[in-house]
Amino acid sequence: MATETVRMDAVKKLYKNKRGIRNITLDVNKGDVLGLLGPNGSGKTTIMKLLCGLIKKDAGEVKMFGLDAEESFERVMRKVGSLIEAPAIYKKLSAIDNLMLTARMRGADEKRAMQYLERVGLLQYANERAERFSLGMKQRLGLSMALVGEPELVILDEPVNGLDIEGVVGVREIIEELNKKGTTFIISSHIASELEKVCNRVAVLYDGEIAAENEMSDIERRYPSLEEYFLENIRKRRGALL
Length: 242
Ligand SMILES: Nc1ncnc2c1ncn2[C@@H]1O[C@H](COP(=O)(O)OP(=O)(O)OP(=O)(O)O)[C@@H](O)[C@H]1O
Ligand SMILES: [Mg+2]
Prior knowledge:
alpha/beta; 9 helices; globular; binds adenosine-5'-triphosphate
C-alpha cells in the first residue's frame, strides 16, 4: 500500500500574469508534518489551493491517497481539512453555527463541534455572531473548521497568523496530538522557529519552485536553526539568479 498521502509530480500552475508555481515535485508521507517555508509570493498558498481543489493545475500530476486528485475529487476531499488564507466564515452566523456547517458535511455531531470550539479557546463565544470576532478569534474558528472532521490530511496556511501566545502554543499542541494519532499535516508559516518545533520535513520555496527540501532532523544536525537553513538556501537561489 502506498504510504504517500500526497504526490505532486512536475506540477505547474501559472496565473494570467505568468506567476505561480513551476516544476513542483513533492511527496508527503502518511504521518508527516511538512512545513512550507518561503518568501512572500513564492507559491505556498498556490500549492495548498491546488491540493484542496480550489484552483486547477496547468500541467503535472497530483495524487492524493493514491488517487488522481482531480478525477477522484470528492473522495479525496472527504479526507482533507484545510484553512487557507482567511477562513470562510458566515458573518451573521454564530461560531457554533458556522462550525456545525462544516461538521455536518464531515459527519461530526454537535458534541464534537463543541469539543473543537473548546480546543481552540472559543467555547465562551460559541453563540456569538462571527462578525463581532477579532482577527485571532476568526482564525481560531477557521482552525476548528479545518479540524472538526478529524480528516487524514490537514492543510494549514499560516495557522498562527494573528494568534496570541497561548493560541500559538495551543495550535502546536493540537498538531502534535493529532499527528501522534496519525494525522498528516502540511503547514506554511513565516515563523521558522514555530515550524521547526512541529515539522519533521521542510520544503523551502523560492519564486514558484522548490529551492531545498530536507528532513528536520538533518537540518537540526547541520544548521544552528531552520532560519539559517532557509536563509542560506534563499541566498543561494538569489545569487544563482543574479
Ligand atoms: N489570483 C491570482 N492571480 C494572479 N497572480 C496570483 C494570484 N494568486 C497568486 N498569484 C501570484 O502567484 C505567486 C505565488 O503566490 P502565493 O499566494 O502562492 O504566494 P505565497 O508563498 O503564499 O505568499 P505569502 O507568503 O505572501 O502568502 C505570486 O507571485 C502571486 O502574486
Ligand atoms: Mg500565502
